[in-house]
Amino acid sequence: NLLLPDGVPPERQWARFYIKIYRAEGLPRMNTSIMANVKKALIGENKDLVDPYVQVAFAGQKGKTSIQKSSYEPLWNEQIIFTEMFPPLCKRIKIQIRDSDKVNDVAIGTHFIDLRKISNEGDKGKVE
C-alpha cells in the first residue's frame, strides 16, 4: 500500500476496459521513402498503399486490431479489452496506428487519451 498514490483506495476491484476501434481516414502514403525503393529493387515490391492496424497500450498491456490490407480508409469496428484494477494507476491510453510491413512496422500516428477527461463522476466511474 505504500506504493499507492494519495487518494487511491487500497481495496480496489478488477474492472474491464473496453476500447472500440471504428475506422481511420486520410492515411498518408507510407512507401515513398528510400527504403521503399530499396525493397522494390530487391524483392520487387511496389505499393503505395498502407496495411494499417491499431495498437492500444494501457497499464502495461497491449492489444491490436486486425490488419486491413492496402487501405487509406480502413474500417475495423473491433473491440480491445483490458482487465485492470479500478481505479487504474495508469492515467492514459496510448492509441497508435501502424503500417504493417514484412521488414518493420512503422508508426503512422500516435494519440494519448487522458482517462480523467473521459471518466464519469462518482465511485464507479471517476479516475482520480
From TrEMBL:
Query: What taxonomic ancestry is recorded?
Result: Eukaryota, Metazoa, Chordata, Craniata, Vertebrata
C2 domain: from which residue to which, for each copy?
Answer: 1-128
Gene Ontology CC terms, in alphabetical order: presynaptic active zone membrane; synaptic vesicle membrane
Recall the GO molecular function terms of this protein's record: AP-2 adaptor complex binding; calcium ion binding
State the superkingdom. Eukaryota
Keywords on record? Membrane, Repeat, Transmembrane, Transmembrane helix
UniProt source species: Edolisoma coerulescens
* A single GO BP: plasma membrane organization
Q: What is this protein called?
A: OTOF protein
Recorded hits in PROSITE patterns, A to Z, give: C2
Q: Which gene encodes it?
A: Otof_3
Principal location listed in the UniProt entry: membrane
Membrane topology label: Single-pass membrane protein
Q: Where in the cell is it found?
A: Membrane
